[in-house]
Specification:
The protein is of the alpha+beta class. It has seven helices and five strands. A hairpin with a 3-residue loop joins strand 4 and strand 5 (about 140-150). It starts with 9 loop residues before the first helix and ends with a helix.
């Protein structure tokens, strides 16, 4: 479904208006929030509060489709794998395709691997942070798809947790042999510290994943 014909929920409407106000540096608010409006209708309502159409369009690209996050994602502060698709007016020409590719490279500060022409855009990065950008053209619009996948970072976190567990067990055994410290207290304290460190790292990665996605979406949207 294209952005023009998509119907936004009341929650998405509120998020778009809040994000648009943030992007425009405005404190204006809209009291009329409804369910099932198109982006064109949202722009019309927002104009009453002095929010320009460009800010609304940018905000709509940055707001994900309304899905109920899992309990784990709520605790983690987000997901390690995120995807955003949006439409931009105008057909996909060779020049536009190259601009999409260059904006992705600029946003990520890495060359990546890919190709760009009027048939489509496909660009991918390798490493712990896996980014994929694609574009397909139609007669009057260009469909952009951006994916950021940081699940490979879990390998490092698992290793960190494993090292923490081994260190905790070793310290607990040593404490028990010495007789000065209760080994169960050492075990509990070590487990708590290891869990806190791993969980903090997970939340940091989910935040980075979300920020990377928004940076790419903004870069591509602005250059077009």
């Amino acid at each position: 479904m294209s952005d023009a014909s998509k119907k936004y929920t009341e929650k998405e409407f509120s998020l778009i208006l809040a994000k648009a106000a943030e992007l425009a540096g405005s404190s204006n608010s809209v009291s009329r929030v409804e369910d099932g409006l198109t982006l064109k209708e949202i722009k019309s309502i927002a104009a009453e509060a002095g929010l320009d159409a460009d800010s609304i369009a940018r905000a709509a690209r940055l707001i994900p489709d309304e899905d109920q996050p899992s309990v784990l994602q709520k605790v983690m502060g987000g997901a390690l794998h995120v995807r955003r698709g949006f439409d931009l007016p105008g057909e996909l020409t060779n020049e536009r395709a190259q601009r999409i590719l260059n904006s992705a490279r600029w946003a990520m500060q890495t060359p990546g691997v890919g190709d760009a022409n009027s048939s489509g855009v496909s660009w991918i990065t390798r490493g712990a942070s896996h980014v994929f950008v694609s574009a397909q053209g139609a007669a009057t619009q260009t469909r952009i798809q951006v994916t950021v996948d940081n699940r490979a970072s879990l390998i490092g976190l698992i290793l960190l947790g494993g090292v923490g567990v081994v260190a905790t067990l070793y310290t607990a055994v040593a404490a028990g042999d010495s007789g000065f410290v209760n080994p169960y207290l050492v075990l509990a304290g070590g487990a708590a510290i290891t869990t806190a460190l791993v969980w903090s790292a997970v939340r940091r990665i989910t935040g980075k994943t979300r920020a990377t996605l928004e940076r790419l979406v903004e870069a591509i949207g602005e250059i077009l």
